[in-house]
Structures are given as structure tokens and as C-alpha cells.
TrEMBL record:
Essential cofactor(s): pyridoxal 5'-phosphate
Protein name: Cystathionine gamma-synthase family protein
Any single biological process term in GO: transsulfuration
Species whose genome carries this gene: Marinicauda algicola
Keywords from the UniProt entry: Pyridoxal phosphate
Pfam families linked to this entry: Cys_Met_Meta_PP
Family statement drawn from the similarity comment of this UniProt entry: Belongs to the trans-sulfuration enzymes family.
Residue list for modification N6-(pyridoxal phosphate)lysine: K243
A GO molecular-function annotation: pyridoxal phosphate binding
GO cellular component terms attached to this protein's record: cytoplasm
Domain of life (superkingdom): Bacteria
Entries under InterPro entries matching the protein: Cys/Met-Metab_PyrdxlP-dep_enz (IPR000277), Cys_met_metab_PP (IPR054542), PyrdxlP-dep_Trfase (IPR015424), PyrdxlP-dep_Trfase_major (IPR015421), PyrdxlP-dep_Trfase_small (IPR015422)
Keyword Glycosyltransferase in annotation: no
Length: 430
């Protein structure tokens, strides 16, 4: 169950459901409790005063999963590693964009991903993963988690179903599959994982091994505006909030969202290992969430124009933009079902001349910023093979279609005509 309804946690105006963009302005916050402040203050405190010893004991019972009759449904404020007013506001508001029961926020996107995977996959267990993933996630699953006895088996994001089922068989022979982890669209190649098929696989695996693994989807690239994985059959969504939701390249944060059943497990581990998010960053995220729809729609439209320019340029070999998927293809059908006409603003393209050609173009750019990350208000561009995915095995990169000349761009909210002019002059250096 989600949190109980209160006067400041209502999602409808009479019979009219309110849109997430409307709820982002006030949901989960009561101005009367904060001297009438129109925005939540920053509660920069480590601990909170209980009204009585009995109340403190009850709060800790609820937080620890030991509630007894008469205890509150949710714990009151206790200690900022467990909960904090700013944490609760941003968690509440994230749920309305995704239709989730609960959200947990973390000190980084990798903090969210590692905590979720550790909550479900333990020594001797198996993680079934799609590939490619964000470079940090690939490193975590392939190189770090084996140190703790967790094995993994992969399948290429756009592979045929029978090929994916072969990976499932290998995974089941190696141990109990405790999580299915995917990222769609993939970073940086924009390949697609069929979320509905992942749900069917989880159901089938559950029948065979007696435990249904949760389907975990990294939704960072399209965000809450472009795709709703929970409605498509995912159990848990993870985010780097640093990207589009934060959106201003001025914070680091992550999130996980899903049903209360799953989030209780995740929240308990977050409290234990301390991957929680600080109040100031939560406050900044609440600020950013108010404009996420406006920013993402503007970036999506700008990306369409820039991609169309790059597609026709003689020094660009391939543009991996979701709006260019071949009509009638498997990827086109999956994308239409999962995201409609939301093609995102992050994509990669291949520059002629390999790494040398890509570097020449990157070094000549004047408006776009040569930096890692994505989803900021400014356009960011990088060479994944030597930056974000440099730690990924070169043979794996080659298998996944990475080329020496591939660059990743995240279009911001600048005037797209200025960006086109910038790419035009930079490509002259190739």
C-alpha cells in the first residue's frame, strides 16, 4: 500500500484526477507545518525530537518491520538516515509521475542500482541482465558482484526471444535467478528491451524455480515523460536522478520506485548501509521536478531537429536515434508500444574517420559541452569508448556494436538551430 491520504496528499480534485505536473507543485507538503512557506524549507537536521518515549519506540518498531497493534502505518520523523521531510516530499512526488506505491531516493544513481540489486541477489544467486547497460552498472554486475558470490548471465537488448531464452536456461542451471535487470533504451546505443516480454520471463522463471524474480528497469534515458515501465510490467524502476529529473547538472542522486512490497525490502537495506540522500539535494530535486515535463519536451523536440540534420551529413555514418527506427521492424513495434512518439533527446552517432574523426569534431564544438552525463539543460557530448564505457571489456563493446567513431550526445534546451550550426562547423574539422 502507498502512504495514507492526508489533506496535503490528495491526487484528485473531486472526481478529477490531477496531473503529475500539477501535483509536483504541492503534493506531500503542508505549508501550515512550516510557517506557511510556499516551498518546503531545507530540514538540515540529523535527528528529530519525539513527543514521548512511547512514540519513539513505536516509530522504530514500524521502521524495523516489527509493528504491533496501535502503531502508526508509517514511521514519524526519527533520524535523517531513515527519513527526513525533504526526503519524504521528493519521494512522494516521484511516485505520482510513475504510478508507484513508494519511492526511495539515494545518494547517486549507482547507489540506487547497487542497493536494489543487493536487496534481492545474494551469494550463490544469479542476476539475468540485458546488455549494454550504463558502464558503471556493467562494472558492478560483471566485476564487483562476483566478489560477493553473485553470478550473472547476459542477453543482448534487441536479441530475438529464443536467443534470450537460451540465456535464461544457462542462468537457471547456475543458480536461482533473483533479479532480471534491464535498461531500455540502452545507453548509449538506443537498443530496446521488450518490458512485457521480461514480465513473461519473470513469471515463467517463478513457476520453474519457486521464486519470481523482480523485473528491474533503468528508465533514466527516457525518464518519466517518455516511458512508464511499471505500467508495462516492470516491478521496480531505477533512476539516475542526476540526469533529466535533476536536469541542471548541479546534483548527484538516484531513485528506485515500485510496490510497497518491494520498496520495503529496498528501504530496509538503504537504512542499513546508508546510501540515503541528503536533505539539500532532495530540496533541489523538488525544485527541478516542477519543470521536468517542460524541459524534457523541449529537449525531445530539439533532438529531433539535430538528429535529422546529422542523418543527412556526409561525415556521419549512422545516427542511432529512436525516431529513425525502420517502420514495421521489431524495434519499431516495441518502441511504439512502450514509448509512443517519445524518442528522447539522448542518442549516439558514428563519425567518419573512427576515433580520430570523432575527437576532431568534439574538439571543434563551441556550443555543445564536451562532458559526460546526460539530461541537463545544456547539450552534453562525449566519446563513450574512452569515457563512460571505458571500463567495459573491449570485446563486449565490439559485440554490442560500439565503433571507434561513436559519440553520444544529450541535447539540451538551447535553440536547436544554434546546435545545428555548431555541429555543422565542428564536422568541417573531420
Amino acid at each position: 500500500m502507498s502512504k495514507p491520504e492526508t489533506p496535503y496528499r490528495k491526487r484528485a480534485l473531486g472526481d478529477r484526477p490531477l496531473a503529475p505536473e500539477t501535483l509536483a507543485m504541492s503534493y506531500g507538503y503542508d505549508a501550515k507545518l512550516s510557517e506557511g512557506s510556499i516551498k518546503p524549507p531545507i530540514f538540515q537536521t540529523s535527528t528529530f525530537v519525539f513527543s514521548s518515549a512511547e512514540e519513539g519506540a513505536a516509530f522504530f518498531r514500524v521502521m524495523g518491520g516489527r509493528a504491533v497493534h496501535g502503531d502508526p502505518v508509517t514511521p514519524g520523523l526519527m533520524y535523517s538516515r531513515f527519513n527526513n521531510p525533504n526526503v519524504e516530499v521528493i519521494e512522494d512526488r516521484l511516485t505520482v509521475f510513475e504510478g508507484a506505491d513508494e519511492a526511495c531516493v539515494f545518494s547517486s544513481g549507482m547507489g540506487a542500482i547497487s542497493t536494489v540489486l543487493m536487496a534481492f541477489a545474494h551469494s550463490g544467486d544469479v542476476v539475468l541482465q540485458s546488455t549494454p547497460l550504463y558502464g558503471g552498472t556493467e562494472t558492478l554486475i560483471r566485476n564487483v558482484m562476483p566478489n560477493y558470490g553473485v553470478k550473472s548471465f547476459d542477453f543482448v537488448a534487441g536479441a530475438p526471444e529464443d536467443e534470450i531464452r537460451q540465456s535464461v536456461e544457462k542462468a537457471l542451471q547456475a543458480g536461482k535467478v533473483k533479479a532480471i535487470y534491464t535498461e531500455t533504451p540502452t545507453n548509449p546505443t538506443n537498443e530496446l528491451v521488450d518490458i512485457e516480454f521480461m514480465k513473461r520471463l519473470a513469471d515463467e522463471i517463478g513457476e520453474r524455480q519457486g521464486y519470481r524474480p523482480p523485473v528491474i528497469v533503468d528508465n533514466t534515458v527516457l525518464g518519466p515523460i517518455g516511458q512508464k515501465p511499471l505500467k508495462l510490467g516492470a516491478d521496480i524502476i531505477v533512476y539516475s536522478l542526476t540526469k533529466y529529473i535533476g536536469g541542471h547538472s548541479d546534483l548527484i542522486a538516484g531513485a528506485a520506485l515500485g510496490s510497497s512490497e518491494y520498496m520495503q525490502t529496498v528501504r530496509k537495506l538503504r537504512s542499513a548501509i546508508g546510501t540515503n540522500l541528503d536533505p539539500n539535494t532532495c530540496w533541489m530535486l523538488a525544485r527541478s521536478l516542477e519543470t521536468v515535463t517542460l524541459r524534457m519536451k523541449a529537449a525531445f523536440e530539439g533532438a529531433r531537429k539535430v538528429a535529422e540534420f546529422l542523418k543527412g551529413h556526409p561525415k556521419v555514418e549512422k545516427v542511432r536515434y529512436l525516431g529513425f527506427l525502420e517502420e514495421g521492424s521489431r524495434d519499431h513495434r516495441v518502441h511504439a508500444r512502450q514509448s509512443g512518439d517519445s524518442h528522447g533527446s539522448t542518442f549516439s552517432f558514428d563519425v567518419k574517420g573512427g576515433q580520430e574523426g570523432a575527437f576532431r569534431m568534439l574538439n571543434a564544438l563551441k556550443v555543445a559541452k564536451l562532458a559526460v552525463s546526460l539530461g541537463g539543460t545544456e547539450t552534453l557530448i562525449c566519446h563513450p569508448g574512452t569515457t563512460t564505457h571505458a571500463g567495459v571489456d573491449p570485446e563486449l563493446r565490439k559485440r554490442l556494436g560500439f565503433t571507434e567513431g561513436m559519440v553520444r550526445v544529450s541535447i539540451g534546451i538551447e535553440n536547436p538551430d544554434d546546435l545545428i550550426a555548431d555541429f555543422e562547423q565542428a564536422l568541417e574539422a573531420v
